[in-house]
Amino acid sequence: MRRAVLAIIVAAAVAVFAAATITHAQEKAPGTVVLKGAPLGGVKFDHAKHAKMEGVKCTQCHHPSKPEKAMKGTAENCTNCHVKTAVAPMTTGVQKAFHNTCQACHKEKVAAGKPAPMKCTECHKKENV
């Protein structure tokens, strides 16, 4: 009897894990997106290119949610939580969130001798609408 119950529990756990894995794999990341709203102009962001870069993990940008602002999906847009002026429980506005994340990674790349944009106008362009 105990073996049968244990087998059912293990089978259920495997089924839940498999369903979660399949669902996550089926979510399609965007190709190129334009991040709008900055006074200097929008930022054309090649999501697919960044996702394929060696050493880059989704969680570097799509960080785990905080208990006070739980995510509704596995990888939400930054602006679902970070807005122009931070609203409690968030403490970081969208500009600071993007700049902290993007600039930290770009500085790391440049320090390693790899090219990455470092000037504002290398990312922000008026024609990116």
Plain-language structure description:
This protein has 129 residues and is mostly helical. It has four helices and three strands. Strands 1-2-3 form a three-stranded antiparallel sheet. A hairpin with a 6-residue loop joins strand 1 and strand 2. The longest helix has 25 residues. It is globular. It starts with a helix and ends with a strand. About 18% of the residues have low confidence.
A few lines on this structure:
With 129 residues, this protein is mainly alpha-helical. It has one domain (30-125): Alpha-Beta Complex (Cytochrome C3).
What is the strand and helix layout of this fold?
Layout: H1 2-26, E1 32-35, E2 42-46, H2 47-52, H3 94-111, H4 120-123, E3 124-125
Antiparallel strand pairs: 1-2, 2-3
CATH fold description: Cytochrome C3
CATH architecture: Alpha-Beta Complex
Helix percentage: 40-55%
Beta-strand residue fraction: 5-15%
CATH classification, class level? Alpha Beta
Number of strands: 3
Biggest sheet layout = 3 strands, antiparallel
Q: How far is the N terminus from the C terminus?
A: 64 Å
Give the name of the CATH superfamily.
Cytochrome C3
Structural domains: how many: 1
- Calculate the mean pLDDT score and round it: 80
Question: What's the arrangement of strands in the largest beta sheet?
Answer: 1-2-3
Molecular shape: globular
Give me the oligomer status: single chain
List the total number of helices.
4
Q: Strand pairing plus helix content: what structural class?
A: mainly alpha
Question: C-alpha Rg, in Å?
Answer: 19 Å
Low-confidence stretches: 4-26
Order of helices and strands: HEEHHHE
